[in-house]
Fold:
Amino acid sequence: MPSQPQRSPAAAAELAADLGPLLEQIGSPDALAGIAEALQVRPVNSLRELRIFLQGYHARILRPIELPAILRAFGHATRHEVRELVAFDQKLGGEPLLQNFSSSSRLAGQNQLQRLRPLRDERTVQRYLAAVDDGSAQGWHTLVYGLTLAIYSRPLRQGLLGYAQQTTRGFILSASRTIDVSAEAAQLLWEEICQGLPGAVEPLLGDKALSQA
Structure:
């Protein structure tokens, strides 16, 4: 595997700040509503319904689709495989469970790509941007997230866990705007839903086929 470009601590801090808007968009009310519709669960109007939503999101979208997509995009970006990344982008567009919140995903991903546009020396970024610009790719947020982890040389385990934890927190915060959830209840729910994430991430990191497909 080709070595990744080295980034300074300042660049690592810049990455954390840069990914914040992407993750905030994924936890938006529009994304929450779209995923609830995709999962065919009731709209989130109570703490119980929020728990059901998050359990379904983790079981049917986050763990089987989004985390492997981030890993695969990371692998393609690390090896500078833009053609394969674009092909995977196109394939992801056919995933039925992503259709109901595809606009939120594309908006978040494309906005993040625009933040990467000034990185003129990053050929993988520029070529993927060109594919999105000409309509060959959609710029799904998971793929852009994986691409961003790769170009900033962020540890993959940390990146996958961070994505899962922060999107979960984002959905809880988003729901808390319209339903009565105390800060304590929100924190307990987040801990409950996220407690199994390290065990879910480890098998992905050991599966070379996903990142090299």
